[in-house]
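Dear Dr. H.,

I hope your travels went smoothly. While you were away I took the liberty of generating a structure for the chain from your last submission, since the lab meeting agenda had it listed for discussion. I wanted you to have the full record in hand beforehand rather than looking at slides cold. The sequence, exactly as received, is reproduced here:
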Amino acid sequence: MHSRTFLHDLYPAFKILTAIRHTELSLWIEALDRHLKEKLETVSAQPEVAQALLNRLNRAMSDLAAVAEYLEG
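The corresponding predicted structure, in token form, is as follows:
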């Protein structure tokens, strides 16, 4: 029998959501962008694949930033 509960497992996510609500979205997006780019640097893929992933990430982060700017505006 597991001693952990479903809500206990979700607690870290609730803490993150609380932090997000008290911080500008642009800062979270910047941190997420930096984190994902660092992870991409460690991926062992062919250069074309790595570049395609980076291009997709850049487009996605740009779209996310535009939505956040609209919501915060």
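Two observations you may find useful: Residues 47-72 form the longest helix (26 residues). The two ends are 48 Å apart (CA to CA).

With kind regards,
E. W.
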